[in-house]
Amino acid sequence: MFLNGKFALSLAAEIVAKEGLEVEQELSDEQIEALTRFSRVSLCYNAAALFLGHRPRSEPELRDRLHQRGFDSDSVDAVVTRLKKQGLVDDTAFARLWKNNRESFSPRSQWLTRLELKRKGIAEDIIDQTVTTIDDEDSAYRAALKKARNLTPSDYQSFRRRVGEHLKRRGFSYGVINHAVHRIWQDQVGNSG
Questions:
Q1: Which one, of 116, 65, 79, lies nearest residue 95 by Cα?
Q2: Is 7 helix (H, G, I), strand (E, B) or coil?
């Protein structure tokens, strides 16, 4: 859109059609301000859709990214509200998806999953509701089993050290680690002997 012969802002075709704008049309200051606001929100929405296209995001992640891209708070609020109504931003669903993804592909402790969700900006009550279903014993066993498949240690100490360090990086407690390592070792020794 050009104002007084100079480029002022770009408008999506839907806004032009919706507002019934025509070439050489005279606009009041209020109309120009409203169109500018529509344009900012439209650009913000497109940036949010692109960001959400890679993977689901938490609301705080989305807000931070849009602010980093230079969008004002009013535009960000309008876009987040719209995306929430469309079901594209939902922190409870995001937390469940995050936990399930971790459980399936890279098991972690309840503590570490809690920390990851907190870093994503998820509210404490949603985190509590999500992580309570994580069974540290089972998760540690599955993570240890996955690691043990790639190892061929001949003695218990090197096996314990390598698998134990792996589980420690995933946030498991000493007792849970010891139990999982011992259980996997017994399974392997029992199967090989």
A1: 116
A2: strand
The length of the chain is: 193
Q: pLDDT tens, 7-61?
A: 666 666 666 676 676 666 677 778 777 777 888 898 999 999 999 999 999 999 9
Q: Phi, psi at residue 2, to the nearest 5°?
A: -110, 140
Token digits for 31? 């109309």
pLDDT the model gives residue 151: 84
Q: What b/e sequence results for 42-62 when a residue is b if at least 16 CB atoms lie within 10 Å of its CB, and e otherwise?
A: bbbbebbeeebeeebbbbebb
For residue 38, the tally of other CB atoms under 10 A from its CB is: 19
User: Is CATH 3.20.20.70 the classification given to domain 2-88?
Assistant: no
What is the CA 19 to chain-centroid distance, rounded? Answer: 36
pTM of the model: 0.80
Burial class (CB in 10 A: 0-12, 13-18, 19+), 68: exposed
Of residues 10 and 77, more confidence is placed in 77
The architecture CATH gives domain 90-134:
Orthogonal Bundle (1.10)
More confident residue, 150 or 183: 183
